[in-house]
UniProtKB/TrEMBL annotation:
HAMAP family: UPF0235. GO terms for cellular component: cytoplasm. This is UPF0235 protein A2290_06900. NCBIfam families: DUF167 family protein. Pfam families: DUF167 (PF02594). It comes from candidate division WOR-1 bacterium RIFOXYB2_FULL_36_35. Transmembrane segments: none annotated. Gene3D superfamilies: YggU-like. InterPro entries: DUF167, YggU-like_sf.
Length: 79
């Protein structure tokens, strides 16, 4: 059963650049206008990826790096 779960998730390793001029994805770097304060950049990251990939926010989770600029994000295919 865990193999099924792995097959339904895509894992991304991203470097977050907060306080940018605009929200933008360039390779493995995500530029966000939000500051890295009180989880604002994390919320902005999930919202940005949701819009970029045209998926629901609940399909995205930060697996590692919640308080770091280097993050591992999981995108679930079926939720």
């Amino acid at each position: 059963m865990s193999n099924d779960k792995k097959m339904r998730e895509k894992v991304l390793k991203l470097k977050i650049i907060p306080n940018a001029k605009r929200n933008e994805l360039k390779g493995d770097k995500v530029y966000l206008t939000a500051p890295p304060v009180d989880g604002k950049a994390n919320k902005a990251l999930i919202e940005f990826l949701s819009e970029h990939f045209k998926i629901k926010k609940r399909q995205i989770s930060i697996v590692r790096g919640e308080k770091s600029r280097n993050k591992v994000v999981a995108i679930s295919q079926h939720k």
